[in-house]
Amino acid sequence: MPPTSLLIKEASIQPYRRLEPEQPGPAAAITPRQQEVLFCLVEGKPTKKICTELGISEGTAKVHISAIFRALRVRNRTQATLVALREGWIHPEMWSRS
Fold first, then answer.
1. Can you tell me whether residue 97 is helix, strand or coil?
2. DSSP states of 42-77 as a string?
């Protein structure tokens, strides 16, 4: 593999290792409403879609998302999804296409 390809591959992998949460917070640290928001995040829904679906304002959605990130000790939606999968709060079968 050419050196450039190795650098690109390493650059695409390394950030995920570095940002992986050390110890996620307990599920009890997330309110039932935040769990609903987390499930929307896991489904890849944008903030505006979450607002519409849950009947909340954009500001409220952003507050919930920030609280979820703090509780799980993550920095983004992808990391939150990975924690939810790892902890068994969600299962990949939820998205199996029929």
1. coil
2. HTT--HHHHHHHHT--HHHHHHHHHHHHHHHT-SSH
For 23-48, the pLDDT digits (tens) are: 545 556 899 999 999 999 999 999 99
Parse the chain into domains and list their residue ranges: 3-95
Round to whole Å and give the CA distance between 49 and 51.
5
Task: Mark 67-92 as b/e (b = at least 16 C-beta within 10 Å).
Answer: bbbebbebeebebbbbbbeeeebbee
Tokens 């959605």 belong to 61
- Tokens representing residue 9 in the block: 């591959």
| CATH 2.40.30.160 given to domain 3-95 | no
The pLDDT score that the predictor gives to residue 77 is: 96
